[in-house]
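Question: does this match?
>
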Amino acid sequence: MSLLAELAFVKGHGTANDFIVYNNEDAEAALSIEQVVTVCNRRSGLGADGTIGAVRTKNIELAGIDHADATWFMDHQNADGSYAEMCGNGARVFARYLVTNGLETEKEFTISTRGGVRAVQIHPDLTVSVDMGKAFAPTPELTPHIRLATGEVFDSVGVFFPNPHAVCWVEAEALPLLELIEMPVVDPCGAFAEGVNVEFAAVTAPGEVVMRVFERGVGETFSCGTGACAVAWAARRSAPALQEVNSWTVRVPGGKLIVTEDLQTGTFVLRGSAELVARGRVLI
């Protein structure tokens, strides 16, 4: 019988999108896919939408990734063990983890992710802002159909943040009734080579939007930071009257996020809560 190892962890969430964060500063103790799946299981494990390993950038080299001046790399995995390019909610939780544990001493610093280096800022109210960079929209426009298990079919618009997203507009009153238990089917199936997060959203007022999301590698989550940015990007472009709206309150099942677009540079900033709720040790 193999011996079990102990992993020290902190659990945190950003608008109820939750993560198991652990210190792997020497890059020698990354969780395997099987361990991530076990830890994230909500019945037999700790339960989470994903894990985040805190790795010192000097100890890890990844093809195509320039850590620049960031000290820490956010090694994020989804609940099924797959990797995502970026995680907006996870980045906020990661920033709080680093400061709370004395691994960063400033309230403004950069972190490295698979999607690039991102600037983060912890505010006095303990919300955290993340520079999410620019959206990438393919040319010609990517507009696959999205079909739910119930047979409902929606038009979508594709955008990358840098995670792939398909944004579907629905009526606000229909949003809570959607059944998002199974992975939506994308037609054509090859529209997103690496899979896709699917957002269902409704604009309720200029600068106000509500959304739900089915996240690749996880399922329906209570929030998605890159998804909130994708929805804000799509909302501003959905009607002429919204072209000059640069700040959006995005309401998700787990709370609300603020997405601000710099209309001159095209960059986005995501701001929202980042709560640390528990620390302990788990057998792996």
Notes: The radius of gyration is 18 Å. The CA atoms of residues 147 and 153 lie 4 Å apart. The mean pLDDT is 97.
